[in-house]
Amino acid sequence: MAKFIIGSAWPYVQTVPHIGNMIGSVLSADVYARYLRMREHEVVFVSGSDMHGTPIEVEAIQLGVDPKEYAMRMHEIVSELFKRWNISFDLYTHTHSETHIGFVRKFFEKIYKNNYIFIQEDELPYCPNDKIFLPDRFIIGKCPYCGYERARGDQCERCGRLLEPRLLVEPKCAICGAKPEWRKTKHWYLDLKRLEEPVKRYVENNSELPQNAREMSLSILREGLRARAITRDNRWGIPAPFPGAEGKTIYVWFEAVLGYISAVKEYFEARGEPEKWEYFWKDPSAKAVFFVGKDNIPFHVIILPALIFASGEGYTTRLTTSSTEYLTYEGDKISKSRRWGIWIDEALKLMPADYWRFVLVYLRPENRDVDFTWATALDIINKIMNDDVGNFVHRVLSFIKSRMKGVVPAPGASTAEDEAFAAKIQELTKKAEEHYERIELKDALATAVELAREGNRYLNLRAPWQAAKERPEEANTIMYNAYWAVRNVAIIMYPVVPASMERLWQMMGLRPPILWREATRRPDPGVALGDVQPLFRRIERAEFESMMEELKRLREEKWSKRYPWEQVIL
Predict the structure, then answer these.
(1) The model's pTM
(2) Is 90 exceeded by the pLDDT of residue 49?
(3) Domain 373-520 - what CATH class?
(4) Annotated binding site
């Protein structure tokens, strides 16, 4: 049994996450956390709402509300939506919690005492229209490396390079479009140059990093790390703890990544075990796995390890990042401003959470960008989820229910075909386990589908409906093996579609919890099935067209509202 800290990228609560955010972080983290719990490891799964920074502050000012009120309302909505998506967080918190604020301030005080922070006066972009210093993310312009027209002042989301506002070609204010002025201000900087070697060793020696995270991080390190300002001039944030830093706040990217530590601390404080967070974070054998989109790679693979090394507090450095490529929507990038995509509140008005979970994990962009189309989604639901998996499950359970008095039969003698299928069950179960261990969630789900397809082929080959008439012992062997396959499909798919697999477990006459070790042994005969019902259902063309009309209606109503929390469909 091992210790795992699982974290998903903290969603920024200026708006509700979309389906690309979901598969890139929260849903993928949930699937892996559920798998680890099935393996009976010690797991703490945390995340929270990223509450601070200029985007919230500016929008709150424009709406005439307090930034804290704005952020807290959105946090409550996003938190409720994650529950409806059946995300199994041990704690979903936010960056304005007392624990997080206190932890961040003490953490940076320690780094300051360790001489990794220095003060520097610099000229920073200032918007003369909005009368504020502009954080890096509020400067947009052309990337000097790849030419992308809408690169941000901290990072280009096309090529992934870390940037600074002065590097941008033709920079402008992201709020109003004005050309920024450069004005002097004093800030506190993290001396990343001094941390470059330990970070480089961490990346080079981390064999568990996915290829995109490794390549992007090594490319950044080859260019050399430069000091980055960790304070900002905006008011909505965590006050900087440094002497003379009154009126400054900690840059959200530097404080939010520390949330993986502070959230574990907060979780155990709430359980009345205030010291147990160190049992995870200060055990060198404990492993922390972060689930992020590829645009978050530098902050998780470079910045967070650098902060941990600078603190000298003995946190585990067994860190890895499972980083996905982008999920696009119908051939284009998801965009709130263009209202292009599907947001997680809308999604649940169209289909149950398990249908979305299955489709998104089946499409998970693990090695390349993947395009979500409704045609593909319907094929996955109708042909794969319902026909391949659901049909196999129903064929097996309904046959046992109607022809074998609803009791799992004891197997008789086996033919070569029976032995081959039994071996296939074990082979594919082991293959799925290997995929989960490597965080290849898409492939793990595909392996469950492959097992269901093999089960359907086996039934067609062995024809138990004929054997039951003349050779009942042979039919018993066939249906015992088929039941075994159904059970292992349920175990493999449980992390992906937990509600559906819990229902299937009951139909199979089995008691919770669903544990992975069950997949390594043959089922017990003599189990009485529960009530057998179809597991999934098809979405026909007329129903799909009705769904699209409903989505159109909901959006017309949604975008007519003024406040972001009024726009959310619950």
Answers:
(1) 0.92
(2) yes
(3) mainly alpha
(4) 143, 146, 156, 159, 336
